[in-house]
Amino acid sequence: MRLDHLSYAAGPDGLAATAARLAQAIGREFTDGGVHPRFGTRNMILPMADRTYLEVVEALDHPASDKAPFGQAVKARSAFGGGWLGWVVAVDDLTPVEERLGRPAVVGSRHRPDGTELRWKQIGVNGLIADPQLPFFIHWENDDDLHPSAGADGSISLAGIEIAGDPQRVSEWLGEPVEAPLEDVKVEWVAPHGTPGILAAQVQTPAGLVRI
Fold first, then answer.
1. N or C: which end of the chain has fewer CB within 10 A?
2. Does pLDDT of 185 surpass 90?
């Protein structure tokens, strides 16, 4: 179990403008990630060190975004002005998570602009919708060289996350101590005043530490 990526929902100015704003702060451009046809969303990504990445995502005007939990989550966050949607944990085997949550994982896919298809399974988005401090789980079905973090040069890395929430609650959700997937990332837990969830991420860049 490891931290895979962070998701940021586009604001009212749209996907490209939101990604450009974050890119200006970080000092590195995001790339077009493609469309998630099953979820009615599309994304732009920024590869980072340690097999992690940042994702900016927006909901499309498509029926799938109203039916799929991930599309619903993105659409709802964007409707509130955009911002941090959640964090995602990668696992080698989703079976224990499926058994614990009592439902099967769903299939996800997207085609990159170069035509390459990325495939994965995910579960737990309904948990994130109900309690945004909770991550959802993903299992990649492609080889490591197709992971969205591929191509990172090591100069951009996730240094820390500020989360409004309860680490004990998150540990129960994960089925193991919350430190397990976050061992290389400093996490500051803040008592939520309002909605729990990610408040900010700290990104290490060649120019220094950036809080977004």
1. C
2. no
